C-alpha cells in the first residue's frame, strides 16, 4: 500500500470515543455518561463518568430514578462533566478547552463548565432538550459565549478489539 490510510477517525470522533469509553465505567443502571476534556492542541486534560463521589459506596447509596428525593440517585451522583473538570490536574489548562460529552450538560454542569473556562462543547445526545434544566443550561452557555455543537459523523460505532 502506498499513501496513508483513508478510514482513520477524526479528532472529534476520537475524543467522543474516549468519552463513550469512559461512560462504560459508570455503574448507573439507567444512564451511563462519559466526558473528555481536550486542550486546543488536542491533548486530553481530563476524563470522567457519572458515579458517586470518591469514598461513597455504590453498594449502599441508592440507584433509583423515582421515589423520595433522598432515596434516589440524584442527590448523590456526580455527573461526568464535573468529574472530568475535577480530574484535570491543572485547572489553568481548562481555559479555552473543549468538552466532549455523550449527553448535553444539565444546568449544574453548565455552571461548572462556564466557571472552569471551557469554551466549546461537543455532544452526542440532547434527549432532555425540552427539560427546564437543559433550557437553563443553554441560556447560561449562550450568555457566557460557550459554543456547543452536536457531533456530526457518519459513523455509528467505533469498535475496540482487546485481543
Jot down its keywords.
alpha/beta, globular, 27% helix, 163 residues, 4 helices
Helix and strand run: HEEHEHEHE
Distance between the termini: 25 Å
Biggest beta sheet summary: 5 strands, mixed
Average pLDDT over all residues: 95
The helix-and-strand class reads alpha/beta
Task: Summarize this entry quickly.
The chain is of the alpha/beta class and 163 residues long.
Describe the structure.
The chain is an alpha/beta fold and 163 residues long. Helices cover 27% and strands 17% of the residues. The protein is built from 4 helices and 5 strands. It has helices at 11-23, 80-87, 107-116, 132-144, and strands at residues 34-38, 44-49, 98-103, 120-125, 147-150. A 5-stranded mixed sheet has the order 2-1-3-4-5. The two termini are 25 Å apart. The mean pLDDT is 95.
Task: Give the helices and strands, then pairings.
Elements: H1 11-23, E1 34-38, E2 44-49, H2 80-87, E3 98-103, H3 107-116, E4 120-125, H4 132-144, E5 147-150
Parallel strand pairs: 3-4, 4-5
Antiparallel strand pairs: 1-2, 1-3
Amino acid at each position: 500500500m502506498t499513501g496513508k490510510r483513508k478510514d482513520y477517525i477524526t479528532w472529534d470522533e476520537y475524543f467522543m470515543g474516549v468519552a463513550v469509553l469512559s461512560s462504560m465505567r459508570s455503574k448507573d443502571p439507567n444512564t451511563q455518561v462519559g466526558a473528555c476534556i481536550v486542550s486546543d492542541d488536542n491533548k486530553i486534560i481530563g476524563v470522567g463518568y457519572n458515579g458517586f463521589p470518591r469514598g461513597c459506596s455504590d453498594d449502599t447509596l441508592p440507584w433509583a430514578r423515582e421515589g423520595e428525593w433522598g432515596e434516589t440517585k440524584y442527590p448523590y451522583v456526580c455527573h461526568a462533566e464535573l468529574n472530568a473538570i475535577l480530574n484535570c490536574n491543572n485547572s489553568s489548562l481548562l481555559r479555552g478547552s473543549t468538552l466532549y460529552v455523550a449527553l448535553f450538560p444539565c444546568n449544574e454542569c453548565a455552571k461548572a463548565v462556564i466557571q472552569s473556562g471551557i469554551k466549546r462543547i461537543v455532544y452526542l445526545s440532547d434527549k432532555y432538550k425540552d427539560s427546564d434544566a437543559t433550557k437553563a443550561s443553554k441560556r447560561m452557555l449562550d450568555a457566557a459565549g460557550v459554543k456547543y455543537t452536536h457531533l456530526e459523523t457518519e459513523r455509528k460505532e467505533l469498535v475496540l478489539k482487546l485481543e
